[in-house]
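To close the chapter, one final illustration. This time we ask the reader to focus less on the individual chains and more on the assembly as a whole: which components sit near each other, and how the overall shape emerges from the parts.
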Amino acid sequence: MRNSNRQWRLKRRPAGDIKQGDLHFAEAPKPVPGPNEILIRNVYLSLDPTNRIWMSDMDQYMPPVEVGDVMRGGTLGVVEQSNNPGFKVGDIVLPGLGGWQDYTVSAFAQKIEKGPLPLTAYMSVLGMTGATAYFGLLDVGKPKAGETVVVSAAAGAVGSIAGQIAKIKGCRVVGIAGSDAKCKLVTKDYGFDACINYKREDVLQALKKHCPKGIDVDFENVGGEILDAVLTLINMNARVALCGLISSYNADEPVPGPYMFRNILMKRARVEGFIIIDYLPRIGEFIADMSAWLSQGKIKWHVDVVDGLEHAVTALDKLFTGGNTGKLLVRIGPEP
Amino acid sequence: MRNSNRQWRLKRRPAGDIKQGDLHFAEAPKPVPGPNEILIRNVYLSLDPTNRIWMSDMDQYMPPVEVGDVMRGGTLGVVEQSNNPGFKVGDIVLPGLGGWQDYTVSAFAQKIEKGPLPLTAYMSVLGMTGATAYFGLLDVGKPKAGETVVVSAAAGAVGSIAGQIAKIKGCRVVGIAGSDAKCKLVTKDYGFDACINYKREDVLQALKKHCPKGIDVDFENVGGEILDAVLTLINMNARVALCGLISSYNADEPVPGPYMFRNILMKRARVEGFIIIDYLPRIGEFIADMSAWLSQGKIKWHVDVVDGLEHAVTALDKLFTGGNTGKLLVRIGPEP
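The assembled structure is written out below.
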């Protein structure tokens, strides 16, 4: 049991790629829970592309992390001290955005009943990651059986699940990923119909080959040239569920939108951004469906766990270099 | 009564701006209606930005006009000869896309009962132009009372009507147009709350001033820098009804999409293309509402009539240089 609280604080806003000196690893006193609050020892920290957005002061979907503040991040932890009758020491909880630190104090948290699934599942397939795939694909993308769905960053935490849900719904699913090994995972483990290695293949030509009937739904995580290739091949009334644009998050200069933007008009297509927080009131739908699919063995997932809070910044970089496969987590401390 | 049929035929696909030699003014024999067909003498020809798209072989919402074919265009005409019991000589009809020519033969046409409105109304406010504004704004843009709506090409045939409908629905409406004279028309005649002259003003700064609560709906006719400025200021869950992208129709090189494309994600916005032909089954809704608004004096409109089919190509150019105000028509021959 630590007596201090290690924290990553934003030291300055990154210019381009995140550099080590952009965040500062500091030590603060262990926080003390007030009336009705609980002290949570953080066990897992979720690393997500959106972390990079939060470090920037661009106009975004929630306020950026202020310089000097503890870096924001989703966490899973264990109650170490409780002043709240609803929680007891040892409870496993999701406090939401517990931050890049050893300890979080909170008055609210979602309790997890330990079941057959590993705790990391609640930080990936059964957590916000899975929910993002679920609502983004089904509610924004609205695929119909027989349609063709393209998923970029298909070996990633969200993409891999989005594609599997599209398969469950009876679609042809084509992934795009950044290595042959990832593509193998995408087709063999996740069951996509095809996967394109964008580092080795001409994406437009490969999409033409693997989407002979065109593209009806795009679950977009990447943007840039990959989105452009997809827009070139969209069908009438196609839908682009805009989940992320990771190709531009580190950009220091304005990034042009897709050159085939005009096809949104020509094909009466719909491009729609979404954020999982808007779907939290409907999270029960996701939990019900995903739990059933998991118990039927219909969904597979991978986690990539990096040990040690001190390595969080280095680990985050993997998301931007394609160094991870599946959901990227930092293990801050041992599971209870 | 002519004994020949003058026709504009596509001679070659334009590179960049349309040049005189891209179309060829030819004379063909006057067509003869077959069984059940009518011979229509064309009176008005509609000139629209989309004409430029049809001349190009880019992937588009309907097949392009083939080189050598009569140029496609919407027409209003009068029946000169009828082999169809549903029509008699003198009937005023809309045959759909009658083409850039003196005569059209058709088996189907929509009859117009002459009323208090001039015939040009059926080629503008009560025709496809008005319907485009109506369904694009209401069905795609879905404005709510109190929201802020921006309309580009606000003095144009579609934009001027879209903005007036938004006013009827209780919105704050800000137009963007290309001259002070057009802006005056937009605010004084069409009743928009403000209008920005994009040739004289910094559009982003002017939008900030005139849209103090941000932008909820964009009725987009232009694209390019104007769309970028709008996307910079969109509110959460904003909607962009993508009606046209005239700023790029003459482009010979790939045109980048909006640099603020990322705001579609950040603001959970929706960008959706639409084409009026998809709404034809619902045209009755438009006719009912628009007829009521017209009889109540709630909608104003302008037509810009160019005399002589021989001037059609020169006239079309006005759409791309901002030379017209309101609906641009060619009067091919006298009204009956």
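The first helix of chain A runs from residue 50 to 55. The two ends of chain A are 12 Å apart (CA to CA). With these observations in hand, you are ready for the problems at the end of the chapter.
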